[in-house]
Amino acid sequence: MIKRLLSSFLPFAFLGSVPSFAVDVGVLLKAQTDPAGAPFYPVVMQILQVLTFALHILFVYTSIGGLFVAVYGFTKKDENWQRLARATLELSKVSVSLAIVLGVAPLLFYQVIYDPLWYTSANLSASWYVMFIVFLLIGYYMIWIAYFKRQNSGVATLFSLLGVIFLLLVGFIIHVVNYQALYPEKWIEWYTSGGTTMNISGWNIYAFNLFRYLAFLVFPSASVTGIFLMLYSWYFREREDMDKNYLDWAGKVGAKLALYAGVPWLLSFLVYAFSTPADWNARGSIFTWLAILGLILCAGVVFAAQKNPAGMAIPSLIAGFVATLLIAVFREYLRVASTARFGYSIYEYKLNLEWLSPMLFLGTTLTGLILYAYAWWMAYKAGRTPKGKVYEASETEHHLGDASVFVVILWAVVFIGVGLIVIIRNYA
Amino acid sequence: MDVLGFYPMWYVPVIGSATIIGIIASLHVLASHTSVGASILLAYLATKAYKENLPQIYDYIKKYILTLLVFSYVSGSITGPGIWFSATVANPRGISALIHNFVWVWAAEWIWFVAEVTLVYILYYTLGKIDQRSWLRLAWTFAIGSWATMYIIVGILSFMLSPGHEKWFTTGNILDAFYNKNYFPHLLMRSAYMFAIAGTVGLAIASLMKKDLPERVYKDIVKTLSYWGIGGVVFGLMFFAWYYSTLPERSYVVIESVVPTYLKVSIMLIILVVLAHFLLTAIRPTAARAWVAVPIFVLIFFAGVYPEEKIRETIRKPYVAGEFVWVNQIIAREVPAKGIKSEVPIIDEKGLLQVNAFVPEGLKKITPENKIMAGKAIAILQCSGCHNVTGSTGLRPFGQKFKGMTDPEAVYNFLVSYMKNNPSHPPYMPKLVGTDEEIRALAAYIADLVSKGGSVSAKIEVPKATAEAMK
């Protein structure tokens, strides 16, 4: 009883006020879980959510970081910088597409097990949540305009700058939604402005944490993009038509950027992690320390890469991804810790176990992996082929290509075939 | 106390949150149907280029893919999650019901999304850089993968309209929900029309490249697009007739009595315009002009896709998902297979304001001081999914619907006899729920709204006296 009372009280020591509402937060969270239940083990949803989030955020970082470099590079007269700015603008352009598409999966799995958190928080700032889409659309078109005008550095600077402003705004909105979700004890007070109204307009923003925003978005964008520049230097070295001096220089710029942005990344993370409410117990959690360890490891690898950025590009990428993944785990820990205060546990989510649709997902994933392997391999080979030349696929590559066409057609046949059988069975 | 799983309500005055979803969804449908249709058309043209040794066709394909990248893979790939985002705030419990039933199906669709997005870039960057056979394979996998996204989403869209069969409520089997009788006609109808949409875009691009292409190649491309377009329209109409025959009974009532005639006429007109355009370019390929094709494409949005989406949204009413979640987010029917209970009895017993945690304490108990505000809160919670409840313009506005009704008693009698205890209740509207006291508060609010000229502020304020009393 005392423990329960304390766990209800403590957060307000950090957020400022004590609620005076009749609804028990734990009861509310329980009531908000979808009555249909989860169709599969919540822990699987949780793991997939964290994994796919790490993939998604990696491309968010290169979208924003690519524009940081582009804005800076376009303002320099040096030809290397101009060239690098064009390359990172291209990186950003493709990354936004990948970030959007990869962002679907983590949100999907998240909404199955944390529906009370996400839907409430999104609805608290509903109009901003919809503006997320509008700003993303504007931001992405700014990037495309910058891309089409990349030979005119003045125009390209302006539109790259506008692009990054809109992307940071988009990041701000999603940050707010994620952050508000962690404080269920404040939701009713926020929405009713202390019991005086209902903020139905959706134009309210109730909580923002600068250090979390910097640690989870701004600094890693610069640092991870630095690692991608090292990778860029490594990948194009094989191309005889590419300028080696330029590639060496680009790799060094990347290594420096990764390191110099990595330091504030670590610092802002420390400030945020250690300023979270005490009853989330972030200080004592292994997940906090693993994330810190991941960041230090990443900084160490990048430090060692300063002399040979291209040679160390792959280890740096792995270290960067490990750090990102560990931070994704830490983010998940915060959700678990925050909601545990009110007796909410995803592991106790009502289960309506169902096997057919997970099998569909598994089958589609296997099909997709064969297709991805072929497509990405061909892209890899094409990218390393000098300008004006055509890459001729080997026999093995042709076989892999035939296999990918075959499995994709097989998937479609099975999908439609099952549908026909079910419909004949149910309606004939 | 009893709490149901409601979320903070979002209210968009005049146009309503449903219109926000409608605009985003229409943009997405236009962009996604263009890209899926184009993926198959381009794979076909690439095969033609390879087999007939017409490398100039690749120049056309490259331009088309760039158009797709700039239009479909920006607008389409952002408005896709955009539908989800807007539905999240307009109807969180509706989208949650779908996600909790179809999460793996959506996850499977995601695998194809990733394939689609990566392949479109790979196709663009590798054209002319890898051998033709390999590129052709990539083009066909892109085409089938893109189409697969439609295979999947159509099942969920069909379920939103209706599970199609009573069986699902007791089996809970995902196959019964997904492959309902509406599935194939719906899929085929969209698949046919997407060629007409992609063909229109294709004609605009071809006409802009007329000078850069040899005459034979140009004519070949235009004729191919025109034939596919004509086929798309003709088959689209046939599949539409089939689709129409699979709708649930209530949808026919909605189409006849609720859907405005101008929406139906506008769709038929744009179909005729598109067909006439393709017939012209099939007979005289040199007649293709961007300044004709582009406005037709824009018209497809305003006169075709938006009305279609609007009608599709309307014929689902009163439900928003699977014939068990109402448009006002109340779970209205039991689904024994999932252990889902109807919330109507508890709301009727306790009151809608009581069971919603996001209603301020000062409005939960109705008093003479807070009656109007409590009524406004009920209107927003229960009716704003389909009505502008604070004005006389826009989405089925209360100010117009209740015009002249300034007597609370008269409004109350109407609400009870028409919306609550009506044996021939309109099939497209949810039953009015809540306690008698709440319905009286709603009636008082509506009478007050009408007596103030039919328009009031959307702001909800707990009267100070009530707020003080609560403290």
TL;DR?
The complex is a heterodimer of chains A (428) and B (471). Chain A is mainly α and 428 residues long.
SSE order of chain A, one letter for each helix or strand: HHHHHHHHHHHHHH
Number of domains of chain B: 2
Q: Count the helices of chain B. How many?
A: 20
Largest sheet of chain A: none
CA(first)-CA(last) distance of chain A: 60 Å
Backbone CA Rg of chain B: 26 Å
Q: From the helix content, strand content and strand pairing of chain A, which structural class follows? A: mainly alpha
What are the SSEs and their pairings?
The complex is a heterodimer of chains A (428) and B (471).
Chain A: H1 2-15, H2 25-32, H3 42-75, H4 79-113, H5 115-124, H6 126-148, H7 153-180, H8 187-191, H9 210-236, H10 244-275, H11 286-304, H12 313-340, H13 356-383, H14 395-427
Helix pairs in contact in A: 3-4, 3-7, 3-9, 3-12, 4-5, 4-6, 5-6, 5-7, 6-7, 7-9, 9-10, 9-12, 10-11, 11-12, 13-14
Chain B: H1 16-51, H2 56-70, H3 72-90, H4 92-126, H5 132-161, H6 167-171, H7 174-178, H8 183-208, H9 215-245, H10 249-257, H11 261-283, H12 290-315, E1 319-321, E2 325-326, H13 344-350, H14 352-355, H15 361-364, H16 371-383, H17 398-401, H18 408-420, H19 436-451, H20 464-470
Antiparallel strand pairs in B: 1-2
Helix pairs in contact in B: 1-2, 1-3, 1-5, 1-8, 1-12, 2-3, 2-4, 3-4, 4-5, 5-8, 8-9, 8-12, 9-11, 11-12, 16-19, 18-19
